[in-house]
């Protein structure tokens, strides 16, 4: 198949990669995101095509919701003007190459299942615990997209009816309880003080403080992990997956909480399934975007 371009479009930067069908990265670079996005992106892609004339296709992962069949951005509020853009057809016309487009969390999930922690599992759910809580479901090597490209929005499953207000306008979504943002709130609520800085603990240090026995940090950890376990168990009830892969910024500290999460999930399991830590970091979206072209 030769070389494929994988492009991951985020709110502040765009990551480009040239990848072979085995997922090996041959070249990689990052540029800032600019508005209006489409003309800028097309210009950058045409330049890339001159540097790599033997590309067999271009895969694009982007913020927002994407109609994977038409490659049109169906919902995106942060990147002005991006919603409604027919990314696939416009870029196919401009480059003469096959172009596929999907949501960035779905692409990250595809990377983990095709090349990473979920390799070998036919049915996998991948969760990204970062600022928010994202997800992607890969069944038989394919992304489950849903009617609007909105499948896998794990962070907007309602966990607590009439709970905290969510960015989606509803109340009690799981993202308000299981995410880096949620950790920040829990740290304030439980008044977790980092003995080193004598100030409120940073989310990335929270689990270390809990391991060290700081009582307030332990109670944040307990609230966080028990909610997380419920989310995972609900996913099993609807998906019956064989494997859950967990990545994202919060999982950088997973050495300090992984086994405790497994303990909490275990009694909630309807049937056995595996839980794995993601192997890719920030490159997951770019790699998975490239894998959109590998059938
Ligand atoms: Zn929500």
UniProtKB/TrEMBL annotation:
UniProt-listed InterPro entries: ATPase_NBD (IPR043129), ROK (IPR000600), ROK_cs (IPR049874)
CDD domains: ASKHA_NBD_ROK_FnNanK-like
Source superkingdom: Bacteria
Pfam families assigned to the protein according to its UniProt record, in alphabetical order: ROK (PF00480)
Family: Belongs to the ROK (NagC/XylR) family.
Name recorded for this polypeptide: ROK family protein
């Amino acid at each position: 198949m030769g070389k494929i371009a994988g492009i991951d479009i985020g709110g502040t930067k765009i990551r480009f990669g040239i990848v072979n069908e085995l997922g090996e990265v041959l070249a990689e670079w990052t540029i800032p995101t600019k508005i209006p996005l489409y003309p800028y992106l097309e210009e950058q892609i045409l330049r890339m095509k001159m540097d790599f004339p033997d590309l067999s296709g271009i895969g694009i992962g982007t913020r927002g919701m994407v109609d994977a069949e038409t490659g049109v951005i169906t919902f995106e509020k942060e990147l002005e003007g991006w919603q409604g853009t027919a990314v696939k057809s416009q870029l196919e016309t401009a480059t003469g190459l096959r172009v596929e487009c999907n949501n960035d969390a779905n692409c990250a999930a595809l990377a983990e299942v095709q090349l990473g922690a979920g390799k070998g599992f036919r049915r996998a759910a991948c969760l990204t615990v970062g600022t928010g809580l994202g997800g992607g479901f890969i069944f038989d090597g394919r992304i489950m997209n849903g009617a609007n490209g909105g499948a896998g929005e794990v962070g907007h499953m309602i966990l607590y009816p009439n709970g905290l207000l969510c960015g989606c306008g509803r109340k009690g979504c799981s993202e308000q309880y299981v995410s880096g943002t949620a950790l920040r709130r829990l740290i304030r609520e439980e008044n977790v003080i980092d003995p080193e800085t004598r100030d409120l603990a940073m989310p990335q240090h929270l689990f270390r403080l809990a391991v060290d026995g700081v009582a307030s940090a332990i109670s944040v950890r307990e609230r966080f992990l028990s909610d997380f376990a419920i989310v995972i168990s609900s996913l099993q009830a609807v998906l019956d997956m064989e494997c859950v892969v967990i990545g994202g910024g919060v999982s950088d500290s997973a050495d300090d909480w992984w086994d405790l999460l497994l303990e909490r999930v275990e009694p909630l399991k309807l049937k056995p399934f595996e839980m794995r830590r993601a192997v890719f970091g920030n490159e997951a979206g770019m790699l998975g975007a490239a894998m959109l072209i590998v059938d």
